[in-house]
Amino acid sequence: MVRLFTEELNIGYGDRLIVKDLTVQIPDKKITTIIGSNGCGKSTLLKALTRVIPHQSGTVVLDGSNIAQENTKSLAKKMAILPQTLDSAAGLTVGELVSYGRFPYQKGFGRLSKRDYEIINWALDVTGTQFFKYHPVDALSGGQRQRVWIAMALAQETEMIFLDEPTTYLDMAHQLEILELLQQLNQQQERTIIMVLHDLNQAARFADHIIAMKDGQIIKSGNCHEVITQPVLKEVFRIDADIGLDPRTQKPMCITYNLIGGV
Hints:
This protein has helices spanning 42-49, 72-76, 94-99, 114-126, 142-155, 172-189, 200-206, 224-227, 230-237; strands at 2-13, 16-22, 25-27, 31-36, 57-62, 65-66, 79-82, 160-164, 192-196, 209-214, 217-222, 239-245, 252-259. By secondary structure, the chain is of the alpha/beta class. It has two domains: 1-78 and 158-229, P-loop containing nucleotide triphosphate hydrolases (Rossmann fold), CATH 3.40.50.300; 86-156, no CATH class. The protein has a six-stranded mixed β-sheet with strand order 7-8-9-4-10-11, sandwiched between helices. Strands 1, 2, 3, 5 and 6 form a five-stranded antiparallel β-sheet that branches. The longest helix has 18 residues, at 172-189. 38% of the residues are buried.
């Protein structure tokens, strides 16, 4: 089933096109990962899919409607996005930051209702951050802060969560912690997860669907066995990769690689 797709999407900054004539479908209730080299349009596509930035032409369709014409609060009840660079939460406690996820549901003076508090506490519980509810966000570790931002996204009660490089600046253990949390949200709550990742082996391990991009266009999309291949990685990243199978997951993994044609 597909609820979100694009048709001949063009996205750019000024006169420079970053994403060109892109048509893509996002599988519902699955984990989709977008991979590609720096500057290929991964983050730009993610932002356009969530209307953070406008597109120049083409359409982004969600549930049969063009998102460009969707009411902002209505759209915020369907999709949440965590950008690569998160806004400062200086002076906020964890509970206060997570409560911002309830904005699409607030009316009048914006007071939180009993239902709002129930959802906030649920989001804290699910992400394992309830203990930090009254702690300053700035006092947390990188992995803990990332969990709190995910809790805020969950508090929006959206069925789709978009994340731009959610494991950046985290050590290996915290990267795995965040990715396993997202996988749990997908498998247990059927959340549709769309994220940009740089680590090919993490993409292969956790994604149901992978989109490989180069120069603003899709080179290959499909499951990990279809995308994490020597020819695709050669075209997308200009590397000669040796691909094996992860002994724990039987998913493809990049064992080693060389640059093609030197530096």
